[in-house]
Every structure is written in C-alpha cells, then in structure tokens.
Amino acid sequence: MTQFLHSLPLVGKRTICRQGDPSSGRSVIREIRRQGDPSSGRSGAFTWNSMSGRSVRLKPVPLQSLSELERVRLQEVAFSRLLQDDNLGCQISIPKDGQKRKKSLRRKLDSLAKEMSKDKESTPQAFGILLSQVISNDRAHKQRQEPQREEHRDPSDLVSSLLHLTSRKSTKDKELSSSNSSLSSTSETATESPSPSTPEAPPHTRRRGGVSVDCITDLDDNQSRLLEALQLSLPAETPSNRKKQRDKKLSLNPIYRQVPRVVEMCCLHLEKYGLQTVGIFRVGSSKKRVRQLREQCDLGMEVQLDEANSVHDVAALLKEFLRDMPEPLLTRELYTAFLNTMLLDHPDQESTIQLLVYLLPPCNSDTLQRLLEFLATVTAHAEDSQDRDGHEITGNKMTSLNLATVFGPNLLHKQKSSDKEFTVQSFARAEESTAIIGVVHSMITTYETLFMVPPDLQNEVLMSLLETDPDVVDYLLRRKDSQHS
C-alpha cells in the first residue's frame, strides 16, 4: 500500500517519501528544498530530487510549455490562491471553455442552415462564434489542406524527412539512455512481462498533445506504452476519483497552440507592414474591403494578405474579430475580478492579474498572449527613431496606453453593444472605463512575464500531482531537466 509521509519544514527543507515494495522497483524518494526566507511568499528556490540522483531545480517556464495536465492543475492552484488572498472583494470562478455551450449553439446553427438555401450565407467559420469553435474550424481546415500538400510534395523531400527523423530518434535514444529516471527503470520491468491490457500507442496525428522537446512520441515503444498506461491505470476507489478520471483524459504533452488563423494572419501582416503607420487602429478603413476580407474568412478560404492590402483594413478586421466574439477574450466571469485588481497596490496588481490569466481556458490565454505580443511590438515602434544611416524613422504614435484605450473595450466587457461603434460608454459606466484601460495597459507592459509560470506555482502543481500520479511527476521532472539543459 502506498503511503505519503510529510515531515514538518526544517530549516527551509521538506522531504516527501513514497514507500512501497522494494522488490517492485517503484519506490521513489523526492526532496523539495526551498532556499530563502520561508515567509517571503514567492521568493526562494525549489529543487526536486529522486532516488536516481536526478536533481531538478524549478525555473520560470512559459505557460505553453506545460502539459495539458499541468495547465489544468495550475488553474486549480491559481484559483485556490485567489480564494485564500480574498483581496478582490468579488466572487471568482474558473471560466468554462465553451464546449457545452458550443454544442447547443452548433445545433441551432445547423438547424438554421437547413432552412437556408444554398445561395444564402453559410455558417460563419470565424466571426461571431465561440473562440473554441473557431479553433476547431481552423484545425479542420488544416486537416483538409494536408492531403493537398502531400499530393504536390516532392518524393525526394519525403526521403530527406525520413532520414532526418531517423537520425533525430537515434540521437534522442542516446540522450534518454544516459539520463534515465526512476520511471525508466520501471519501463525495463514492463518490457520483461508486458501487460496484455496495455494500449497500443496511437499514431502521432491522433495525439492530443503537441510535439515538444521531450514528448512521449520521442520515446521508444516500451516507454511510450508505459506512459500511456500510467494515464489509464489510476486507482478506481479513492476520495478524489472524479479528478483522477478527468486527469486520465489529459495529455502529458503541451497542447497545440490555440490561436485563430485570422488573428495570426492580421498580426503578421501588421508587424510586417504597419509598424511605421501613424495612427494605426485609429485611422478609418474601407468598410467594403473589410467586409470582403471578413466574408472570405467566414467561408473558410485561405486568405493571403500582402503589401497591397491596406494596413488600416487589416487593423479594422482584427478589432472586428475581437469585438464580435460572443464571449470576450477575458471572459465575463472574470470581468469584476480583473477590474478590482486596479484597486490593489502595484506589485499585487501584476501578480493577481497573472493568477487570473492562469484561470483562462487555453484558447483564450494563447490568443491573448499572441495579441499582447503584437501590441507590445507596436508600442516599441511608437516613437520616432533613426536607422543606422541616420535617417529618421517615423513612429506610429500608438503607445501602450493608446492601444489599451482602443482594445480594452473589445477584450473586457459585460455585454455586447448594439451600436456599430463599440465604445466603453456603451456597456459600462464611465468610472469602469479607466479600470478596463488600466488592466489591458498593465498586460501590454508586462506581457513578457505575464505568461511565465514561477517556480513556487510549479512546485504546488507538482505537489498536487504527487498525491495522485507520482510516476507522472517523474516524467515531468525529467522533461523539465531536459529543457533546462
């Protein structure tokens, strides 16, 4: 029977021991050492050790580098911290990703489409629908494009790719053999007497997780099958059975980047052609051309933007996409919580906004990250400058505050405006507009650290997983060590 022994912190050091049958080869001892003042909150270092001698010191990592399972647990950890602090003075809940609502909306759209003739407008693929559905439509579009690309692919390219993958796998095998953790020793035991119930590893195209530096698909067959089995072999009778059943369906890999094609397309075009455009996002556009671009996106067409497309048209298209989302990017559930962060002291503002961002569904946080990265780039070109030859480069005059004023109402609001012009006054009181702008302004100026997960939160995530999936923790620690090195 597996037991967990927790000793009281002694001189900033805590040891966690998992006891089991020594003959099973699955006994694991981990130490968590925190260096620094224990009362300092988020300061200090966290180091995890295993019996194999591997020592992993947790470092800040990008949010998108976490596995799907880790991101779900991070939501729970952030939610718990927000409730403990209780300094926002409002009710907080973890926003849903819209999957349940998406089904009912889809049924309505399907029934409506049956009544419409083929000549009339079809179901939109990008604008005015839930973000999760936009991501789903984009994935379907990509899958439809793959066979066409394969047909036109040069056979010599395919041979080169196969040789490259073979070489890469050989290198990976050497790395893994030289840096095995306690998880690797259990895979050797599994090789001797494989379980007949162990599922076959699905092909890469059917996996939920994306390709990572040290993902399951890079392991050999025995290790891959073992990791799949670990996700499906949780105890059936425990107090937290519901959480375990949910975790079984979550990937140990980072999930694919969930940014709508239209957002990525607009950001890339504006970064290439619009950074020196004065008053970008403030100057009017051609409604006819914007409508044509919108219709092409809604038909699922492959839209190609180039220098001939007006910067102001593309800027208007981006704003229109964010404005017409049925659920704002920062979600209605967190509207009051985000606004109340402006009542806190500056250091607390940043940390609390970061915790609220962790609560967002992956598609929301990934899209927000891409948007903020773009807005920060625009801000970096706001002032006039000179090139290497001394020639003056005109700035776009769009500071982070100006951009927050433009995008704030599109990202954070309670209800949709019935007016064509989407202004703060159309959905919120005037005193709320300052807070909305302040939240988005803070996000733009701190975006580089906003989506980094500090060691103390990673530590809490691993502690949470250690209680239910110690073998999975071994794999995650091994991957963190590989990424750091």
UniProtKB/TrEMBL annotation:
Keywords for this protein: GTPase activation
Signal peptide: none
SMART domains: RhoGAP
InterPro entries cross-referenced by the UniProt entry: ARHGAP6_RhoGAP, Rho_GTPase_activation_prot, RHOGAP6/36, RhoGAP_dom
Record domain Rho-GAP: where: 250-451
GO molecular function: GTPase activator activity
Biased composition (Low complexity): 177-195
UniProt entry tagged with the keyword Nuclease: no
Keyword Metal-binding: no
Residue ranges of the region described as Disordered: 138-211
Listed GO biological process terms: positive regulation of intracellular signal transduction; signal transduction
Biased composition (Basic and acidic residues): 138-156
Annotated Gene Ontology cellular component terms: cytoskeleton
PANTHER family for the chain: RHO GTPASE-ACTIVATING PROTEIN 6 (PTHR12635:SF14), RHO-GTPASE-ACTIVATING PROTEIN 6 FAMILY MEMBER (PTHR12635)
Protein name, UniProt field: Rho GTPase activating protein 6
Species of origin: Salmo trutta
Native organism taxonomy: Eukaryota, Metazoa, Chordata, Craniata, Vertebrata
